[in-house]
Structure formats: structure tokens, C-alpha cells
Design goal:
It comes from Parasphingorhabdus halotolerans. Keywords: Membrane, Transmembrane, Transmembrane helix. This protein has a domain of 71 residues. Helices cover 90% and strands 0% of the residues. The protein contains three helices and no strands. The protein starts with a helix and ends with a helix.
Length: 113
């Protein structure tokens, strides 16, 4: 047999049409599987974000409560200190005010030069 005869008339008759149909069917199922997987991943991500958001919200509420309590304790301590030493508190506040005023005046005059 020569080469041209072999190409023109194959020795085995294959049913390529049915094989292509099977491959198309497999590809359609695979496409459906990918679509389903995409929806499931999106749904799972949404659920995870919801749980994380709830967790973060709870954590923020707890930390906020702790900070409010600490602030309240600090305020009470400052008020108690002022009540214990009212004259020293007034002198300290006045000194701080004078120091800040002098600093502001110095920076303002220094900027003009």
C-alpha cells in the first residue's frame, strides 16, 4: 500500500461524530459543575463575611465597653485628685495655661522673623 491510499482510505473506520458528541456532553456537564461551584463559593464567602462581621461587631462592643469603663475611672480619679488638692490643681492648671500661651507667643514671633 502506498502512502496516498492509506490517507484516503483509512484501515479502521472510527465514529468521530459520536466521540465528539460525548466530549461536548462532558464539556457541558463540566461547565455546569463550574457554574455550580462558583455559586457555592460565592455563597460560602458571603456566609463567612457575615460571621466575621458579627464577630468584629461583638469585639468592638466589648472593647468599647472596656474603654468607657477605663475613661470613667480616669475621670473619677482626676475629680477626686482635684477635690483633695484644689489649690494645687488651680495653680497647676494656671501654670500649664501660661506655659502654653508663652509657647504660642514664642512660635508666633519666631515665625515672623
Amino acid at each position: 500500500m502506498n502512502k496516498e491510499t492509506t490517507i484516503a482510505h483509512p484501515q479502521h473506520d472510527h465514529d468521530y461524530g459520536s466521540q465528539i458528541a460525548v466530549i461536548r456532553s462532558d464539556l457541558e456537564r463540566l461547565q455546569g459543575d463550574f457554574t455550580k461551584l462558583g455559586h457555592e463559593v460565592a455563597e460560602d464567602a458571603g456566609e463567612r463575611m457575615k460571621h466575621f462581621s458579627e464577630f468584629a461587631s461583638d469585639q468592638l462592643k466589648e472593647k468599647g465597653a472596656v474603654l468607657r469603663e477605663a475613661g470613667e475611672r480616669g475621670k473619677q480619679a482626676a475629680v477626686a485628685e482635684v477635690k483633695r488638692h484644689p489649690i494645687a490643681s488651680i495653680v497647676g492648671a494656671a501654670s500649664a495655661g501660661l506655659a502654653l500661651g508663652a509657647l504660642a507667643l514664642f512660635t508666633q514671633n519666631g515665625a515672623k522673623r
